[in-house]
Amino acid sequence: MMKTVLVTGGAGYVGSHCCKAFAQAGWNVVVLDNLSRGWRDAVRWGPLIECDIRDEPRLRAALQAHQPDLVAHFAARAYVGESVADPALYYANNTAGTLALLEAMRATGGRHLLFSSTCASYGIPRTLPLDEAHPQTPINPYGWSKMIIERMLEDYGRAYGLASVSLRYFNAAGCDPDGEIGERHEPETHAIPLLIEAARVPDRPFTVFGNDFPTPDGSAIRDYVHVNDLASAHVHAGEMIVDRGGTHVFNLGTGVGTSVLELIGAVKRAAGTDPVVQFGPRREGDPPVLVASYAKAERELGWRPQRSQIDFIIETALRWRDGRVGR
């Protein structure tokens, strides 16, 4: 029988790509999203339930109606700067919202949760590459809001038998190679779409925050993983947790770092023009290098990144951007 996955935040960037991957793997997909930061036209692989995750009675009704084998939980606010300016929003939406979801699952017999977590829960790296045993010491409310959820999942597993997988993303990037869905944020804060815009629109310069890091070229280094690779990992993790149960945590990255200046060069190659660039000071709390170890995901999920070469990431992002503007 086909399994059903209920995807909270399935109208958003990573959530919508995961919906497509689940559908292609033979799952029935149901999306639950309040569309505050998602897009109705990104819901293409199953019905949409318009609902806020803090609305526990409506969550219960949705879970009761669809009886999902798995809940894949992406619904969250995800801007670091916004979390510093308005932490209440992040604890109310991300943390308390997840508590409402967990209680709705407990009331309706839900047993399996796949959680979209973040490398922001690690804080400043002490060792590299970062593995899952690295201490979690977040430096912003966004990271704390996600880390608290991970602890909640551990506790719900021990007390109530909830099975869960937390997937700690590094830098999600790129777009669906088929062009059906892509990356849209308002406001946009991710480096690759901002750089592409700076290459296409001269009066929208890209700001490099810091060129004096202790790295080979002075700019910060990050681990970019293609969103389709993330989606593949979610399918692997979803199938594992339904079959095996338990409480699990995995990093999702590539083990390869790309500096901001290298990223600028890659966008120039793909776009055929120089992005307009300006330099600013470092942002508080920005670590010089963030690179993942994905050895545990490879060992236990059989997952490794397949599409995360930086040129391919940028090619898919550029194609999505130009295709949307051209329509």
Short synopsis of the structure:
The chain is of the alpha/beta class. The chain is 41% helix and 18% strand. Helix 1 (13-24) packs across helix 7, helix 2 crosses helix 4 (87-108) and helix 8 packs across helix 10.
CATH class placement of the largest domain: Alpha Beta
CATH architecture of the largest domain: 3-Layer(aba) Sandwich
Largest sheet: 7 strands, parallel
Largest sheet strand order: 3-2-1-4-5-6-11
Helix % is 40-55%
Count, helices? 10
Query: Element order, helices and strands?
Result: EHEEHEHHEHEEHEEEHEEHEEHH
**How many strand elements?**
14
> Mean pLDDT, as a whole number?
96
Rg, please? 19 Å
pLDDT under 50 segments (min length 5)? none
CATH superfamily of the largest domain: NAD(P)-binding Rossmann-like Domain
By helix and strand content, what is the structural category?
A: alpha/beta
Q: What percentage of the residues does DSSP assign to strands (E)? A: 15-25%
Number of domains: 2
Characterize the overall form: globular
Cofactor: NAD(+)
Pfam families: Epimerase (PF01370)
Pathway: Carbohydrate metabolism; galactose metabolism
Family: Belongs to the NAD(P)-dependent epimerase/dehydratase family.
Can you walk me through this structure?
The chain folds into two domains: 199 residues, NAD(P)-binding Rossmann-like Domain (Rossmann fold), CATH 3.40.50.720; 104 residues, UDP-galactose 4-epimerase, domain 1, CATH 3.90.25.10. It is built from ten helices and 14 strands. The protein starts with a strand and ends with a helix. The chain has 327 residues and is of the alpha/beta class. The mean pLDDT is 96. α8 packs across α10.
